[in-house]
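4.2 Preliminary Data

To establish feasibility before requesting continued support, the project team ran the inverse folding procedure on a target of 473 residues. The structure was first converted into the token representation described in Section 3, and no sequence information of any kind was made available to the design step. The complete token record follows.
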């Protein structure tokens, strides 16, 4: 990681400055795709920002938005409740859509991602997302099942440690653009004055033109958007009927426990009420494990994460191959309740807007939550770059909502459906792994092949229509 940071710093200096990393053009061709952000209808070059945005939260969503704002000359400050950038987290897999979005936000960021990510360790499995297996003892061998790949030509397997991903993002953010120890407790907006006042738990306040809530699934900003917008019942995250154990182990450990045949390349082990994923990260030196347990009862523990006795892992995965149980037991025995925002009727209200998990937290089955936040950041920063007066901010948010919400909410719904399929509780597939793989080979295409350039054109077109002839005056 030090290498990545030092490389970035060689390119940008100690910390990137706005001028150095925000070229005046918005044309950022993807190193790996023919897509570029150049609209078919020429868009005016972004001029210096007439607005100042408060970005709440410095997760993948908030930081990606920050990088996008730099590129589009949109002035911003990030307010983060923690004392420093997060260094915790597990593996994150990104699809080609997310990588294109990243490249369109910043080709340098996309290039840095290549230095921290890992594919399958077998080179011939470049386009394999995962190999589907039975979780049962013997991994389905007694049924004659051998690991079956799913993926697509348009897809290249890549995952990273969340810490490394955050590091390459933060290397792009100037130090003076972030304030730590700033837990948002209240947001007041004065739409007729183009002004918001954000209050923090330390008693201070900040004034800005608009607020983008990137504060995650439990974030406070969701309440300030959906409550006043008339959807208070949608504010609280909904328990998705499953919890997971997450861990990262050295690849040697994974190989010793699972066997060389099953470690190294990404695997998806399925069985009644369980789904366990393993995949390489950190240039193949580590193996990420996410083991989901599906339950019928509501989540009762007051905390979303809580420690359980190590034996609970065995009782949670009763008909699972012993090798997998042992691998899961390498994790801290902590259960993480999975919550999502299955219904979100709007992503904006007045001068407040939502991005990332605060808008559309999803279950992890389609490995798309972080990817969606990067796509959000691309579209929102692009349209914000076209705002020349604060009176047009609501139109920009409405255009972003129209482009992003249908796709992001579809992710939330289809991910929950996929969870049922993995857990063998979808009657159309049962435990027929052949049928499941058939579905897996097509179900991701709409996510991976999505045309982001068309989205950028659409968001600009909608914005132009909404603001034509000073409609918002
Ligand atoms: C088990 C699991 C596996 C996953 N795997 C994948 C995957 O493979 N691929 C993928 O794309 N996605 C994956 N995801 C989803 C992904 O991790 C999230 O979608 C993504 O990290 C969300 O980023 P975010 O910036 O929106 O929110 P967060 O990362 O939650 O960041 C929110 C930030 O806001 C701060 N904050 C919170 N409240 C306040 C406040 N009041 N004031 C100020 N700051 C505040 C927090 O401290 C935090 O820094 C997975 C999720 C899980 C649970």
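Position-by-position output of the design step:
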């Amino acid at each position: 990681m030090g290498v990545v940071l030092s490389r970035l710093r060689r390119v940008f200096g100690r910390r990137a400055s706005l001028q150095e990393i925000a070229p005046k053009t918005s044309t950022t061709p993807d190193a790996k795709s023919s897509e570029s952000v150049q609209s078919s209808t020429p868009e005016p070059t972004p001029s210096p920002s007439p607005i100042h945005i408060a970005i709440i939260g410095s997760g993948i969503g908030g930081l990606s938005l920050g990088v996008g704002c730099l590129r589009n000359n949109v002035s911003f400050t990030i307010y983060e409740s923690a004392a420093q950038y997060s260094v915790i987290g597990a593996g994150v897999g990104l699809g080609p859509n997310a990588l294109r979005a990243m490249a369109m936000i910043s080709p340098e960021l996309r290039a840095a991602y290549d230095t921290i990510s890992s594919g399958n360790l077998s080179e011939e499995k470049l386009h394999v997302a995962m190999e589907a297996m039975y979780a049962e003892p013997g991994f389905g061998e007694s049924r004659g099942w051998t690991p079956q790949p799913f993926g697509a030509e348009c897809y290249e397997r890549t995952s990273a440690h969340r810490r490394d991903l955050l590091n390459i993002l933060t290397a792009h953010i100037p130090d003076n653009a972030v304030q730590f120890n700033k837990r948002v407790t209240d947001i007041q907006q004065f739409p007729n004055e183009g002004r918001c006042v954000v209050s923090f738990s330390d008693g201070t306040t900040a004034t800005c033109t608009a607020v983008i809530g990137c504060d995650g699934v439990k974030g406070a900003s969701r309440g300030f958007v959906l409550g006043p917008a008339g959807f208070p019942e949608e504010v609280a995250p909904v328990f998705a009927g499953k919890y997971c154990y997450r861990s990262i182990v050295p690849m040697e450990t994974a190989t010793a426990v699972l066997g060389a045949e099953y470690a190294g390349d990404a695997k998806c082990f399925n069985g009644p009420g369980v789904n366990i994923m393993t995949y390489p990260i950190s240039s193949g030196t580590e193996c990420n494990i996410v083991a989901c347990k599906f339950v019928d009862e509501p989540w009762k523990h007051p905390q979303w994460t809580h420690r359980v006795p190590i034996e609970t892992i065995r009782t949670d995965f009763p008909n699972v191959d012993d090798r997998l149980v042992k691998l899961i037991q390498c994790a801290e025995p902590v259960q993480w309740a999975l919550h999502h925002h299955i219904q979100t009727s709007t992503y904006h209200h007045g001068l407040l807007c939502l991005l990332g998990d605060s808008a559309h937290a999803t279950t992890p089955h389609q490995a798309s939550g972080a990817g969606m936040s990067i796509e959000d950041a691309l579209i929102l920063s692009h349209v914000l770059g076209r705002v020349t007066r604060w009176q047009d901010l609501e139109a920009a948010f409405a255009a972003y909502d129209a482009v992003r919400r249908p796709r992001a909410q579809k992710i939330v719904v289809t991910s929950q459906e996929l969870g049922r399929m993995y857990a063998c509780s979808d009657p159309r597939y049962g435990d027929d792994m052949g049928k499941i793989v058939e579905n897996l080979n097509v179900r991701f295409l709409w996510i991976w092949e999505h045309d982001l350039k068309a989205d950028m054109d659409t968001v600009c077109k909608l914005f132009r229509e909404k603001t034509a002839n000073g409609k918002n005056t």
